[in-house]
Write a structure and sequence with these properties.
Strand content: 15-25%
Distance between the termini: 29 Å
Largest sheet: 4 strands, antiparallel, barrel
Mean pLDDT: 83
Structural class: alpha+beta
Shape: globular
Length: 160
C-alpha cells in the first residue's frame, strides 16, 4: 500500500460516520493495534472497516482524522475502501481551528467559482446547455481535487 488512507472518528476513537466499536488509537508515535479481522464477506456500509483516500476525505471529515493502513482483502467502492484488517497510524493536524480555516478556504474558492459561473451564464445564456453541463462535471471534479489538496496541506502541517 503506497497510497495514503484515512479514517475520521470521534476523538476517543469511536465511530463518527456510523458503525460501532472503538478503534485502537496511536500513541507516542506508535500506531494503534490492528483491529480484529472482519469475518464473512466484505460489504460496503455493512461489513468491514471503512477507510478513504485523500480525494474522498472532504466528504468524510469528522472530529478527528487519522492516517490509516490496511492489510489483506480490500473492496474498492465509490468514495471509500472496505477492508478486512486496519489500524490507525497517527492522528493528523485537525481540530476546530483547522476545520474553520479549511471551511473558509472552501467558501472563498466556491465564491470565486460562483462569480465565474455567473459571468459564464450571462455571456452564454442562449444555448450551450450541454456544454455547461459538461463544464459543470469538470468543475466539480476540479473542486474536489482542489479541496483534497487543500485539506492535505492542513493535515500535514504545511499551513498554519
Amino acid at each position: 500500500m503506497t497510497e495514503r488512507l484515512f479514517k475520521a472518528l470521534n476523538k476517543d476513537g469511536s465511530a463518527f460516520h456510523g458503525g460501532a466499536g472503538t478503534w485502537h488509537l496511536p500513541s507516542d508515535g506508535t500506531p494503534g493495534e490492528w483491529m480484529p479481522p472482519i469475518e464473512g464477506e466484505l460489504v460496503v456500509c455493512h461489513n468491514g472497516y471503512h477507510l478513504c483516500r485523500a480525494e474522498d476525505l472532504p466528504k468524510w471529515l469528522g472530529p478527528a482524522i487519522f492516517e490509516a493502513e490496511y492489510r489483506g482483502e480490500c473492496l474498492e467502492a465509490e468514495e471509500k475502501l472496505v477492508v478486512r484488517e486496519a489500524r490507525l497510524l497517527r492522528q493528523l493536524n485537525w481540530d476546530d481551528r483547522t476545520a474553520r480555516l479549511f471551511a473558509c478556504d472552501c467558501a472563498e474558492d466556491a465564491a470565486r467559482g460562483a462569480a465565474w459561473a455567473a459571468g459564464w451564464e450571462a455571456a452564454w445564456a442562449a444555448g450551450w446547455a450541454a456544454a455547461r453541463a459538461a463544464a459543470g462535471d469538470v468543475e466539480r471534479a476540479a473542486e474536489r481535487e482542489w479541496q483534497s489538496a487543500k485539506l492535505m496541506e492542513y493535515l500535514y502541517g504545511s499551513r498554519k
